[in-house]
Design brief:
By secondary structure, the protein is α/β, with parallel strands linked by helices. It has 2 domains: 33 residues; 103 residues, no CATH class. Helix content is 30%, strand content 30%. An 8-stranded mixed beta sheet has the order 7-1-4-3-2-6-5-8, with no helix packed on it.
Length: 153
């Protein structure tokens, strides 16, 4: 009888861990119920490293997520829909930037609030945006400049 009890407990533990992984995966892919908030739009020249579910941060604190990301066929920019908490009211001259957590970290959308007394209404577009910066592109410019300087000496 003790073998049967041990098998039942081990099976229950395996099912609990599997259920935990399923919940974690559902949250990461955005399959869970949508949190309350309001949407803002932003267009980025490059949204490299950004996907649905990416954090939107203000002063380093998560205040929302990217809920939709599409390519605009007219402008060839990445149009993002940002869902922010209802308690966050952004001035209408705020900026949205694609930022990196470091060399090996992921990207996120950083919001830099402006100083306007007027706030962005739900569904408005953040006009001031900056896309992601390619680290490889920066390194290639540095290496190219160093090689050019060496040839000129």
């Amino acid at each position: 009888m003790s073998e049967n009890t041990t098998e039942v407990l081990a099976g229950t533990a395996v099912l609990a861990v599997a259920l935990g992984f399923l919940v974690y995966a559902a949250q990461g892919t955005g399959l869970t119920a949508r949190a309350s908030g309001y949407d803002l739009r932003a267009s980025f020249q490059s949204a490299e490293g950004i996907s649905v579910g990416t954090d939107v941060r203000l002063a380093g604190v998560k205040v929302g997520t990217v809920s939709q990301l599409d390519l605009n066929p007219q402008t060839f920019y990445a149009d993002a829909t940002l869902t922010l908490r209802d308690s966050i009211a952004l001035p209408d001259d705020s900026a949205a930037l694609v930022s990196s957590e470091g060399l090996l970290g992921g990207n996120y959308i950083e919001i830099r609030p402006g100083g306007s007394p007027e706030n962005l209404p739900a569904g408005a577009e953040i006009e001031d945006t900056q896309g992601s910066v390619s680290l490889i592109g920066l390194l290639m410019k540095f290496v190219g400049k160093s090689a050019e300087d060496a040839l000129n000496q």
